[in-house]
Amino acid sequence: MNEPLLAAAGLIILTVAIGLIRILRGPDDVDRLMAVQLLGTGGIAALLLTAYATGVPGVDDVALGLALLAAFATMAFVNLLETDDDETELGETEP
User: Fold this and answer.
1) DSSP code of 1?
2) What sections of the chain are H helices per DSSP?
3) Which residues does 56 contact at the CB level (< 8 Å), separation at least 6?
C-alpha cells in the first residue's frame, strides 16, 4: 500500500533534480526563481509523502522546517534580483 506513495515521492525528487539543473543553467532570472520555488515545494511534498508512507516520526517536522527555509530563500533571491536590477540601472545612467 505504501509503495505508490514512495514511487510518487521518487518522481517528485526527479522533478526537483531537473529544477536544480534549471537553477544552474537557467536562461533568465525568472526561470531560476521558479526553480527555487520548485525545490522548496517539491522537497516538502516528497518529505510529507515519505513521512506518511513510512510512519517515521519527525519527518513531517523536517518538511515544515524546509517550508520556512524555502520561503526565506525565495525572499533572499528576489532581493538579490532587485539589487542587481538597481545596480544595472545606475550603471546605465552614469556617463
Assistant:
1) -
2) 3-25, 29-54, 59-93
3) 50
CA distance 75 to 89: 21
**What's the gap between Cα 36 and its chain centre?**
4
Neighbours of 38 (CB within 10 A): 19
Longest Cα–Cα distance of the chain, Å, equals 68
Which tens digits make up the pLDDT trace of 19-63? 888 888 878 878 888 888 888 899 999 999 999 999 999 999 999
Residue 55 Ramachandran class (φ > 0 left, ψ -120 to 50 alpha, else beta): left
- DSSP conformational letter for 58: T
Choose among 61, 47, 57: nearest CA to 6: 47
Q: How many CB atoms lie within 10 A of CB 59?
A: 16
Q: Of 56, 43, 36, which is closest to residue 13 (Cα–Cα)?
A: 43
